[in-house]
Write a structure and sequence with these properties.
The complex is a heterodimer of chains A (113) and B (110). Chain A has 113 residues and is an all-beta fold. In chain A, β9 and β10 form a beta hairpin. Chain A is built from no helices and eleven strands. Helices cover 0% and strands 56% of the residues of chain A. In chain A, 34% of the residues are buried. With 110 residues, chain B is an all-beta fold. Chain B has a single domain, classed as Sandwich (Immunoglobulin-like). Chain B is built from no helices and eleven strands. In chain B, the strands form two sheets. In chain B, strands 2, 4, 5, 9, 10 and 11 form a six-stranded mixed sheet that branches. Chain B has a five-stranded antiparallel sheet with strand order 1-3-8-7-6, with no helix packed on it. Classes of the chains: A mainly beta (113), B mainly beta (110). Chains A and B meet through β5 of A and β4, β5, β9 and β10 of B.
Amino acid sequence: DTAVSQTPKYLVTQMGNDKSIKCEQNLGHDTMYWYKQDSKKFLKIMFSYNNKELIINETVPNRFSPKSPDKAHLNLHINSLELGDSAVYFCASSRPISTGELFFGEGSRLTVL
Amino acid sequence: TQLLEQSPQFLSIQEGENLTVYCNSSSVFSSLQWYRQEPGEGPVLLVTVVTGGEVKKLKRLTFQFGDARKDSSLHITAAQPGDTGLYLCAGAPEQYALNFGKGTSLLVTP
């Protein structure tokens, strides 16, 4: 069983479209995250949820909206996609925030044309 | 955001050589983690160091946390092609998510 799974793995779309990436974890963790990894491999925190509540929202355009229907799921919806949104988006989960090991999904590679 | 600087950014070596990767910050961390990421996959935790001066070994990998808990190093002895990957250090300011360094891309050729 995959611990943290995200779909889709690849997403190619046109500028201006709206798209979603889904994430699910079966580890029983309370905290989930979205990270963005750019073309230079820099991994940057975007959002963090703890028990369905948003606790971290870094400087991310409000075109990005996370949603956590329950503590095992954290989805990312992106409106009006721009070229600069092209990146690999990683979902992760952990137990206590800031000290726990992060378990990452395989990533979703988004390409905006 | 507390910056973690990693060096070198890229490293290409032959099988059997030794190497050291550095992770530095001007901030103090309660703990530091090292991850390895292979192409097409998410990062996987290698080790967490917590105590200043701590040394941890994982087979041919040796991790050290600086006395002041501001820096860390990863030393690989007799590197093998299977060690190829992106090595990331990560630290967490209190009550925040992990911040990652920019990574060191290691290529070990046979």
